[in-house]
Amino acid sequence: MVELIKAKGCNVYLVVVDGKKYVVDTGLPGNERRIAEAVKECEGIILTHSHFDHMGSARALSKILKSKVYAHPKEFEYLKGIKKHEYKGLIGSFARFYESIKKPKYLEEVESVEELKDLEIIHTPGHTEGSISILVGDSLICGDLVRCKVFSDNPTLSSKNFNWNDEEYRRSLRKVLKFEFEKLYPGHGRVIRREEFEDLLKKVF
């Protein structure tokens, strides 16, 4: 089961697998109370990637729920504040400024998603070095692999201004097509049907 939790910054999801609850992404700083009230308890907090609008409340939420935070190992240094993401262009400069205002709290401890044996974790690098997608039944939680436009509500690709490596990103788009799913749950915007995703990729490749 995948359920949307209303939060600021990005889509936050509650995943239930074999009776175990996981929170996927946490949005900007300040979401922790809202998410904790909706979830009450969970097995862990999973971050699809380490951009500030997805990890901003992870540290505070982990303390409230007394839960571990999981991510791909290639995201660890970003989540701990050791490395910084490089954003490009005018939009990237605005994002960097906004991030400096929001001041995400970096994590002290992060566990590898490879430890989560009850979930199918797919490494989908490109947007960031350690971006992941999570397959839950017929649903794929895909972080910022794809998203929906703010005003038109149409599926679109992630902005190159925020991608770590465009070539790797395109490989990941092809990679997820090999998996069986009917719906994509993006980090921003509404649920995307598989056929919409396939139509989007036809325009790209």
What this model shows, in words?
- The structure is a single chain.
- The chain is of the alpha/beta class.
- It has a single domain (2-204), classed as Metallo-beta-lactamase, Chain A.
- It is built from seven helices and 13 strands.
- It has a six-stranded mixed β-sheet with strand order 1-2-3-4-5-6. Strands 7-8-9-12-13 form a five-stranded mixed β-sheet. The protein has a two-stranded antiparallel sheet with strand order 10-11.
- A hairpin with a 2-residue loop joins strand 2 (12-17) and strand 3 (20-24).
- The longest helix is centred in the middle third of the chain and has 14 residues, at 89-102.
- The protein starts with a strand and ends with a helix.
- The model has no long low-confidence stretch (mean pLDDT 93).
What key phrases describe this protein's structure?
205 residues; alpha/beta; Metallo-beta-lactamase, Chain A; six-stranded mixed beta sheet; five-stranded mixed beta sheet; 7 helices; 13 strands; 29% helix; globular
Enumerate how many helices there are, as a single number: 7
Radius of gyration: 16 Å
**Total strands:** 13
CATH level-1 class? Alpha Beta
Distance between the termini: 32 Å
Cα shape:
globular
Poorly predicted spans: none
Percent of residues in helical segments?
25-40%
| CATH fold category name | Metallo-beta-lactamase, Chain A
* pLDDT averaged over residues: 93
Class from helix and strand fractions: alpha/beta
Strand order of the main beta sheet, please? 1-2-3-4-5-6
Sheet with the most strands, sense and barrel status: 6 strands, mixed
Overall domain count: 1
CATH superfamily: Ribonuclease Z/Hydroxyacylglutathione hydrolase-like
N-to-C SSE string, H for helix and E for strand:
EEEHEHHEHHEEEEEEHEEH
Binned strand content: 15-25%
The CATH architecture:
4-Layer Sandwich
